[in-house]
Sequence to fold (233 residues):
Amino acid sequence: MLVSPLTVTFVQSTILNALSNILAQLIDQHINSPKPFSLNTLALLQYVTYGILIVPINFYWQRALEARYPGFPTRAEIANAFRFSGRSCSPAALFRGIRSFFSFAVSSLFTRDPDDQLPSHKEREKDKDLWAPRARRSGLHCFVMKFFLDLTVASGVNIVLFVVLINLLKGESLSRTWELIFIDFRPIMSARLKYRPLVSTLMYTVIPVDRRVVFGSACGVIWGVYLSLYAVV
Fold:
């Protein structure tokens, strides 16, 4: 019997989320309590439940993102963006290459490809699918868009969902949960941006779409420890 990609992702991510919470409890009790380790089952169940609720959302987000911006950047596109010569590896050349890449990245967010044709009014009315892929987008452009959306839209939504779900599972009221969104959003986003760019780069260059949530969970075990500690395990 074939198992669906969502089921595989669901099981693997749940195991990784449970592992990160147990590690967080070990760290927390080692620092704050001289007593032998005692598993906080309620905290574990709360965090695993949060993971169970969040996995399908992220799974279908990654699929929608790939449908809208399909493909990976080619080596030629990356080399062209960096405008690097193999014989020019000085610090100044490296700086120019990085500057050129990010200039390309920013311009990709706000410009259309020359090959794109402006749709007619009838075509715009006919195309109701927000996530339909655009024709002839370069792999590098698609990478830049996925990278940008992952660090902004996806990060913001995931943090809000974490604060809301964890606090509701802990029994907080809706009004208190709303207050905590404004209190907790900035520090959690700041911590996320310290590791997520590297994860996003790998996800959108080498990882197949149906493995991205699991890959993110595997890379984010330490992130899961941080979230568990933040939730006061």
